[in-house]
């Protein structure tokens, strides 16, 4: 099989189609299916930008990005909490110059 630039897209489409079929046949893929729509919107927006349709491309990327950020808000909160803890420990480790 000759490798070209369309193989990645073909494999992605096959994977997404398989996820949709598994969901329809009763295999619980609800968590993954929740991310499928925003990622597809971002992908279609990128494709629109690539093909010169900048207005619709930016709109699709913005809506898909906002939706994906809302779905990932729990992970973002965890990352923020870890960052605050690390920053707090780094402040405690610093030597105080105040006498």
TrEMBL record:
Pfam families: LiaF-TM. The chain crosses the membrane at residues 32-49, 56-89. It comes from the Bacteria. Residues 10-97 form the LiaF transmembrane domain. Keywords: Membrane, Transmembrane, Transmembrane helix. This is LiaF transmembrane domain-containing protein. It comes from Paenibacillus radicis.
